[in-house]
Specification:
Layout: H1 8-15, H2 25-45, E1 55-59, E2 65-67, H3 68-83, E3 89-92, E4 99-100, E5 112-120, E6 131-139, H4 150-153, E7 162-168, E8 172-177, E9 182-188, E10 193-198, E11 209-211, H5 222-232, E12 241-242, H6 248-258, E13 260-264, H7 277-290, E14 294-296, E15 316-319, H8 321-330
Parallel strand pairs: 3-5, 11-12, 11-13
Antiparallel strand pairs: 1-2, 3-4, 5-6, 6-7, 7-8, 8-9, 9-10, 13-15, 14-15
Helix pairs in contact: 1-2, 2-3, 5-8
Bound molecules: 2,5-anhydro-1,6-di-O-phosphono-D-mannitol (AHM) and magnesium ion.
Amino acid sequence: MPKINQTLGEFIIEHQSSFKYSSGELSRLINSIRLAAKVVNYEVNKAGLVDILGDIGDTNVQGEAQQKLDVYAHDKFVQTLTKRNIVCGIASEEEEDFICINSIDANNQNKYVVLIDPLDGSSNIDVNVSVGTIFSVYRRVTPVGSPVLIEDFLQKGSEQVAAGYVIYGTSTMLVYTTGAGVNGFTLNPAIGTFYLSHPDMKFPKEGSIYSINEGNYVHFPQGVKDYLKYCQKEQGNRPYTSRYIGSLVSDCHRNMIKGGIYLYPQTAQNPNGKLRLLYECNPMAFITEQAGGKASNGTERILDISPTALHQRVPFYCGSKEMVNDLESFMGN
Ligand code: AHM
Ligand code: MG
């Protein structure tokens, strides 16, 4: 039974022993993310007030314009996880290479690596639309105490030990899983505490919302075009409703609560789609499955894909199980 008024801190302590490798390390990691999220939240909230908006002229590894708050969020998460001696390696959307903590602290004995998109959907900030942080946690596969290697990061999504997101929206929420269901916590900004507000979150099996950037329609694979026509057809509970924020965390969060599907297909120009497997799709897929939903690249389970590169992209279809099943059958499965 969820406890009334339980804080995230209390929840983490209470559930620590149910985690199979329990040593307190993962709890400290989630705690650190909670802390950094509050700092980033404060900054995101005042984005309209201070001169922090806009380009700093740099581009990130994908060649996209980087905004100040992306960099700020990256720095805060990396600093928090590094200075508090929580992990052995970090990979971020904002940095080409992974960060090896052993090169900063030779005595590092930590066993977890974190992959993070510090501020996803950041082009939405200057129009006051919700953005998010997405994170994914693995146990390293190389020996503890040695410098982390690329193989510690290139693990299948099914090996994740935890994943979550923070949504900086009308209220700020932290939603995460350690493989035993999904729980959501809402920040009370007056006292800076996250409270359990959405225990055991579940995708409705069926839904009636589809979320896709239809501006790219002419470039979509035929299966996606056919599925969209199906969504728009007058029959049963269709036509579905179209809702697209253009902020992965927000679109998926809404779909998890209301029932829906998020689609980011491949196109001729972008044969692997736009979204990144390791720090966008895998964590969202882990949460989705833990909430009873389904995540696929159109033909294959996202969590079964063997990664080959840190910033690799993948087509992404994620949401209510029946809707993703329908999409897959239109893709010829
Ligand atoms: P980003 O990592 O550069 O912020 O891009 C990821 C975002 C997702 O949050 C969102 O769902 C998608 O890009 C929107 O892309 P588009 O503008 O092509 O519809
Ligand atoms: Mg992103």
